[in-house]
């Protein structure tokens, strides 16, 4: 199994509070991603990183920010959580060559009440 | 606008028979396609992939077929086993690798004994 750890695994938070989810990898992969999974939508890309301090927006980036200060860590921040951000969040890693797949973490279930 | 579509939310197949899962896409820039399998409370796990320069890729019981002219791919599982019961996602990338994946909505496969 690829070394990807997401924390926390579960979180309940109140509307309007900031929340940070962490993804840690031990594979030294260049690319890191945050996806959210919602019924009827599959997985949708929120933000991704192609190197330390290099990040870009995905399909559903509004309300989210990210940071990558080290190769191994990719943080997703909800500046002011809303109920529409209740979801399961997955971190993934990939390389540009040689590896045919992206590896996913186990997910973080976030509930905004 | 859903660029990758899995139009069957669910599929039920008898053990030992063939399971065929379908996926359609609209973006002609997609160059690489993958299938992932997901069990509840776990992250997606990679099954099989195919490059746009091929029309078939086989790995054990799993075969992926790509029809570029129809913008359609399918996953065949034969013979189907109870452990194959899961949600299956197809995904596509504009790169020759698993970068910035765009996912379909998923198909829940149930294998009946």
Describe the model.
The complex is a heterodimer of chains A (113) and B (113). Helix content of chain A is 0%, strand content 58%. Chain A is built from no helices and 11 strands. In chain A, the strands form 2 sheets. In chain A, strands 2, 4, 5, 6, 9, 10 and 11 form a 7-stranded mixed sheet that branches. Chain A has a 4-stranded antiparallel sheet with strand order 1-3-8-7, with no helix packed on it. Chain A starts with a strand and ends with a strand. Chain B is mainly beta. Chain B has strands at 4-5, 10-14, 19-25, 32-38, 45-51, 56-59, 62-67, 72-77, 86-93, 102-103, 107-112. In chain B, strands 2, 4, 5, 9, 10 and 11 form a 6-stranded mixed sheet that branches. In chain B, strands 1-3-8-7-6 form a 5-stranded antiparallel sheet, with no helix packed on it. The interface between A and B is medium-sized, with 28 and 24 residues.
